[in-house]
Write a structure and sequence with these properties.
The protein is an alpha+beta fold. The chain is about 25% helix and about 35% strand. About 35% of the residues are buried.
């Protein structure tokens, strides 16, 4: 049997996604621009989140599960005193409460309660699927379904600054961790409510956003120029 022909576009592309487009929007834009039949992504970023999105191209899609299973590093901010129906800044405000006097040390002390194994129930406005349908599509129709809690692990959760009501953090966690759920529960434990006000993905496994190209820059490349930024299959499989 002849060996399969490997295209220069078979592999992965590190994209620095801006806030706004969905992960699927990025996949569609790259598919159309470079006329690649098979394109996927390794781990959804919410529309308002930005940072590292690994796009797999051609035969690289066969390695998406391996890449998706890697641990993640995020940086972001939590706004105390406001609860939203989506646990993040995209949602409608459903509650407000005064923020108690807090120091950075007190916030970090509470953060330690979220380090280790956690059981998380996927939010209704997440991309998790029930019966093959993303939860957010059901939520838009006003349908709420039972979701099974999932085991996730947080390796590190540390706040670097607090300027009431905004707390700035960095978190290292396993795949499938809902950082906005942590923000929501954090606010519940403080008694004032909270939501995730911003989120940036810094790292997926060994891949860093420092080596990613902004989506706007990618969309200006020619196919030949894009090839120079594609991580080949052998390197991905290491």
């Amino acid at each position: 049997m002849p060996l399969p022909v490997i295209s220069p576009l078979d592999g992965a592309l590190l994209v620095d996604k801006p806030p706004g487009p969905t992960s699927h929007d990025v996949v569609d834009a790259i598919r159309r621009k470079f006329n690649v039949r098979k394109v996927g992504h390794c781990g959804t970023l919410d529309p308002n989140a930005d940072g590292l999105l690994i796009i797999v191209l051609g035969r690289g899609t066969k390695l998406s599960d391996k890449l998706m299973s890697a641990d993640k590093v995020y940086a972001g901010t939590i706004k105390l005193g406001q609860t939203t129906d989506t646990y993040d800044a995209d949602g409608a405000i459903i509650g407000t409460s005064p923020v108690p006097p807090l120091t950075l040390e007190q916030i970090n002390e509470l953060a330690q309660q979220f380090v280790g194994d956690l059981m998380q129930t996927p939010p209704m406005v997440s991309a998790a699927k029930v019966g093959g349908v993303p939860l957010y599509k059901l939520a838009r129709k006003g349908v709420e379904v039972e979701r099974k809690p999932r085991l996730v692990h947080v390796y590190n959760f540390q706040f670097s600054a607090y300027d009431e009501p905004i707390a700035t953090f960095r978190i290292v966690c396993t795949k499938g961790t809902y950082v906005r759920s942590i923000a929501h529960e954090f606010g519940q434990k403080l008694g004032c409510g909270a939501h995730l006000s911003s989120l940036r993905r810094l790292q997926v496994g060994r891949f860093s956003v420092d080596n990613a190209l902004p989506l706007s820059q990618i969309m200006e490349l020619t196919t030949d120029e894009l090839q120079r930024h594609v991580i080949p299959l052998l390197k991905l499989a290491e």
